[in-house]
Automatic annotation (TrEMBL):
DNA-dependent RNA polymerase catalyzes the transcription of DNA into RNA using the four ribonucleoside triphosphates as substrates. It comes from Aspergillus campestris (strain IBT 28561). GO terms for biological process: termination of RNA polymerase I transcription. A zinc finger (C4-type) spans 10-33. Zn(2+) 1 binds at residues 10, 13, 30, 33. The keyword Transcription applies. This is DNA-directed RNA polymerase subunit. It holds the Pfam family Zn_ribbon_TFIIS.
């Protein structure tokens, strides 16, 4: 009989044995080949590895301290909205929910010339 952790296997065919009583004086019979195997107490296998042993970009993203780049913080999109100051046809915008959930959001527009405008939906 072979044991891996708490699993017991037949020494002849490798089949998983059932109904272990953890008494070494008992025998377990294999359902596949009929071989007689000694019963054994289940063992506990504990293994540990350092997080640095298996580097992962996902694990790095889950760390407590994250470094954000300027590109990560950029949440603006471009809209077809005319700037009141320079007349440019496109402005950057971002939508933020500043009031309660049943009210509209606030749209912040920003032009490359520096002009800023807000609109409440």
């Amino acid at each position: 009989m072979s044991a891996i952790g708490s699993l017991l296997f037949c020494t002849d065919c490798g089949n998983l044995l059932q109904n272990s009583s953890a008494d070494p004086t008992n025998f377990l019979f294999c359902d596949v080949c009929g071989a007689r195997n000694k019963d054994a107490a289940p063992g506990t296998v504990i293994s540990e590895s350092k997080p640095s042993a298996f580097p992962s970009s996902l694990r790095a993203k889950r760390s407590a301290v994250q470094t954000l780049t300027a590109e990560d913080r950029k949440t603006e999109a471009i809209a077809q909205h005319t700037c009141a100051k320079c007349g440019r046809k496109e402005m950057y915008f971002s939508a933020v929910q500043l009031r309660s959930a049943d009210e509209g959001s606030t749209i912040f527009y920003r032009c490359v010339c520096g002009y800023k405008e807000t609109t409440n939906n």
